[in-house]
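Bug #77: duplicate submission created two jobs. Keeping one. Sequence:
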Amino acid sequence: MKRIPLGLATLLCVASLPAISQQLQQPTVPANKPAPTQTGAGPQLKQAQSVQAPKVATDPGQRPQSSSPIPSAGPAKQVPAEQTAPALRKNPASVFDSAGKPVNGMVQIAPNRVYDPVTGLYHWTRMEGQQQKLID
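Kept job's structure:
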């Protein structure tokens, strides 16, 4: 008589555990459900009437036409293209570099912040009197 190795028997038991736990989680349903008795203790409910769904023609030519046309523009408003880009101040800022020389072409985009369109870089500034001086 051949004996089943202990490892194979353990593997079969471990493999069957998920199926056994699934079966244990299933609720039990009684075979005969007792019919509720009419004692008059609660409100009496009427049977729901079946609602017939309206018939829709499968051919689009047979469907009724809408009384109002479909609007070409919905509730959303179209935004002009010039408003989608961040609004930059067009007046150049009087900015000086760290040595005190004026830097031309800088555009102020925020307080203490300028944009150099030549290099494409943003720079921090600090106020010195009426002028701004580059920090970096």
